[in-house]
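Our preliminary data section would be incomplete without showing what the modeling component actually yields. Below, a chain of 575 amino acids is followed by its predicted structure, encoded as tokens that our downstream tools consume directly.
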Amino acid sequence: MMQNIKWLIAATIALSLCACATQGSKHKHSERDAKIVSFSSLAFKESPHQFDVVDIDVHLVAQWQDPYVSSDVALDLEITTPSGEQKLLPGYYLNGKSQAPSHWRVKIAPHEPGLYKVRAKLTDNNVVVYGEYKNLTVTPSPKKGFIRNYDGWSFVYDNGDLFRSIGQNFGWEARHNDDSKYFKALHEDKRFSYDEMIPKLRASGANTIRTWMIYWNLPVDWKNTANSERYTNTTDRFNQSGIARLDQMLEIAQAQDMKVILSLDSHAGFIGEGWALNNYNTANGGPVSDPAAFFTDSSAKQLYKDKLRYVVARWSHSSAILAWEFFNEIDNIIYSGPEHTAIVSDEAVVQWQDEVGEYLKAIDFHEHITTTSISHRDVKGLFELPSIDLSQTHLYKVTDRIPEIISEKNAAYAQPYFVGEYSAEWDWSVNFDEISDTMITDFKRGLWYGLFAETPILPLTWWWEYFDKHDVSRYMRHVEVINRLMLAGGNLQRYPTPAVAEGIYTAAVANTDKAFIYLLNKTDQAQSVNLSQFVPAKRDYQIFDGDSGVYLSDHDRQNLTLNAQGNYIVIFSKN
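Predicted structure:
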């Protein structure tokens, strides 16, 4: 009897151990569970041109709980460039289920001609599986490529052509219920869409817009949306309606040769209604209960990195993207406490920016320029970070100080500087029609100030609806005429100008061949200027009327009459 009991106990333990082992084997992950089924692209058979967008489709089997969590599952393209660099580019999930065939994609726009060796790298719960190497032969192309930092005055395309941004903010498409006191109907006008405004602004001389990703516009990282009939709420990690619209916007921009500064987040998403809707808020299933913790919590940082990973995988191939902007006015989150007190330290925000900025740099094979912005309060150390390529502040009611401020910021910051927003007024509760002349004069003056200052992006005005209503945006064509002439000679630098009468502002820029003298009459009366103090003796010159957009054909060789508030450019050969 005792022997039978011992046998029964031993058998029970054995069965239990077997059951545990069997149960464990269901969850144990091995390399056999993760596999790359196929790795295909037409480009492997046909030689794409340099800067062409190449789609590589990957079908794989992996085990995950969430395909958008890179610590759970991640697909990368391992790249060996013709020059021998080793790089990774993230891929993104399209469809399929865990432990079943799923479809992923990688989009690459090769920068250099020659032979690339590429293979898929699948990381599944810390198990790494590689696909076979395939060759990608890229042929030279006449395309300009991507835009890079250059010398503080301008950018440069991959092919060597110089580029300087002229444009304005087009922060978002028309909202369903705008909060403007005086211009509600204007701001809700459906003509303010990317489809209509990008071509219109391009025809007006603009080559750059700055636009936001936020819960009412391009809400890729927002499950909850508001104030726009274009988007729908979702339970998915990323919002498909936002993804589709960002696809469309970049297609429109690419077709129009319009560059985009894409602001990935705004302070508006971390205060008031924005925080109530925010994915990072614990109330919505996020990791943190307040905006300050967003910058310090490790789970929030990882969630944000996975957002960056998706954005890079999905859109970094687009040369229409001039720059990634991490945050619009990040200082407005810092000082969002009662009576504008600080809720988080500069140091914490800078540490956050350093970490996520370096991560973005590491995964963006296409090497886009990066920026972030502050409104009017410095964040100590922010613009000293190597992961920020452009410094940016926003200037309201100080347009006449733009030249001075640009010089100050260039001296203070490690990166080239630009004015991301400016206008004569920031307060949306003001009736702009009562100061219409001031608003329009300020718009024009800011552009000329920027053209004659050391900045690669001319100041970008706000209030796009108001300036469209008054047909002012087309004035950018006049500035573009001189911009093209400046860039044609290259090597932009300051050129000295003498002091003139009070109320006359002067500035000058020279390129390799020509000098450009800007004369602004800031007074309300016509003023006469003796041109001999600007133009060397016996030197031919042209005078461009910045306000009419034409060259003066008949003028006094000695004196130039400047109209009240008039903008003029004198152009002559340096030799």
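The first helix runs from residue 2 to 27. Residues 251 and 298 are 35 Å apart (CA to CA). Preliminary results of this kind motivate Aim 1 of the renewal.
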